[in-house]
Amino acid sequence: MKYVSFLKATNFVHNLLINRIPEGSTVIDGTMGNGYDTLFLHEQVGEEGVVYAFDIQKLALERTKEMLIENNIAIDSNRIRLIHDGHENIGQYVKEPISVAMFNLGYLPNGDKEIITQNSTTIQALSAALSLLQARGIISIVIYYGHIGGLEEKQRLMDYVNNLNSSEYTVMQCSYLNKEKNPPIIVLIEKNK
């Protein structure tokens, strides 16, 4: 069996969310990337749930389709909607309440490192996801910021979440203490009851 660290940022988030996604719910992968979160979300929502996955890069859609096919998942169903558009346009596609939204900020791994998430569109996307989030729903954000523009996005995003109304949302930050070179930061937002 292949060892996968529980403390790898994306694995950590998956383990936190695994029991928080009700079967049949609607969820969002705001940054499709290579499809790992899309696949994870699909496995959690079951036969009646819907996954909306967004990315501006055609390569991300292709890689995600490949991953889903490798896992014998029909990509032509309405249960997984791969959307070639920016996550700032979530509100144009998703109308129903969501239980979870996931974002991994930065650039597409093994892709064009010049194409990065931007603080303005990320905050728009987060605002849209928050407006759809049902009570006890969670948004996860993994902030990768060791690239040009990453520090600015991280700071703007942290300012935004620090100012969320504490009576409406609980915001938690998880970070690595002994890693060098801008280790990822995990932000979790739960909508209060």
From TrEMBL:
Gene3D superfamilies attached to this UniProt entry: Vaccinia Virus protein VP39
Recorded GO MF terms: methyltransferase activity
Source organism of this protein record: Natronincola peptidivorans
GO biological process, one term: methylation
Keyword terms, alphabetized: Methyltransferase, Transferase
InterPro entries linked to this entry: MnmM_MeTrfase, SAM-dependent_MTases_sf
Protein's recorded name: Putative rRNA methylase
Domain of life, source organism: Bacteria
Pfam families: rRNA_methylase (PF06962)
